[in-house]
Amino acid sequence: MARSTAEVVAVVVAVAVVAAMARPAAGQGAAPAGSPAPPYKNHTVAGADGWFFNATTNTTSGNYSDWAAGETFYLGDYLIFKTDDSSSVVQTSNATAYTLCDAEGPETLIYSPGRGDAASSHAATIAVPLTVEGANYFFSDAGDGAQCEDGMRFEIKVAHGRGLPPDLAHPPPAPKPRVLAPPPDGTSLNPGVAGAGAGAAGDLTEGKSGGSRACVAWLGILS
Fold first, then answer.
1. Pro residues bias located where (predicted)?
2. 82 in a structural domain
3. Domain range for residue 68?
4. Mean pLDDT across 28-39
5. 104 bridge partner residues
6. How confident is the model at residue 175 (pLDDT cuts 50, 70, 90)?
7. Percent of the chain clearing pLDDT 70 (strictly above)
8. Does some domain include residue 217?
9. Coil, helix or strand for 181?
10. CA 181: distance to chain centroid?
11. Is 135 exposed, middle or buried (0-12, 13-18, 19+ CB in 10 A)?
């Protein structure tokens, strides 16, 4: 599958990730009396099976469609992907992009902990908020879509529930980049632009496809 070299690097705001992991477990934080909406919930994708791909057998670690069919999802919930840096998580509301395993389509976010090889992969946890009501699609675009084509994908329906919590309905603005001071006279170093300030994971740039790539979107990389 041909891929565009232009990508949009989306800023991953740390406070949203922290909020996902701080959510109460199922059964805690009950909804107010008289409210039909359940509390917000974290859904660990495929449970203990996780979000992994075996490149030797071309198989996934879980049956993601079966797992999704047994869950109920609402706005403000989070999907927690236990994975490694040989896979990615693509989130889209575009059914065509999902069908084609095409991460370059519009309305697409790509959460990627990197592109390690099988011999040096590292564990990662990616938290993805559910902010779009209705159909949501997820897949891995690793191997130019090969993992998706071999079953690393699923779709869900997101109900309104309580609606988006304040941290997702009105996320804080991305911090502005810092500019490094020029190096002292007589050195060979060149001035440059540092990455986004504390609480961000990258810079925001435009690409041709209209999709987005959220690099370094993991909660933690474990050796």
1. 168-185
2. yes
3. 42-169
4. 59
5. none
6. low
7. 58
8. no
9. coil
10. 33
11. middle
Q: Nearest 5°: CA angle at 130, between 1 and 33?
A: 165
**90: which 2 tokens?**
């693509």
106 or 114: which leads in pLDDT = 106
Model confidence pTM above 0.70? no
Quickly state the pLDDT bin for 184 (edges 50, 70, 90).
Answer: low
Distance (Å, whole) CA 24 – CA 100:
36
Residue 12 lies in a domain: no
- Rg over alpha carbons for the chain, rounded to the nearest Å, is 19
Q: Which of 55-69, 75-89, 186-200 has the lowest mean pLDDT?
A: 186-200
Q: Which two tokens stand for residue 43?
A: 């859904």
d(CA 89, CA 98) in angstroms, rounded, equals: 12
Q: 53-54 and 59-60: which strand pairing?
A: antiparallel
Number of Cβ within 10 Å of residue 52's Cβ equals 21
Torsion of CA 98, 103, 104, 108, to 10 degrees: 80
Query: Across all residues in the chain, what is the average pLDDT?
Result: 73
CATH number, domain of 81, equals 2.60.40.420
In contact, 94 and 82? CB cutoff 8 Å? no
Question: In total, how many domains does the chain have?
Answer: 1
Q: Are the beta carbons of 84 and 91 closer than 8 angstroms?
A: no
Do residues 2 and 188 make contact, with C-beta atoms less than 8 angstroms apart?
A: no
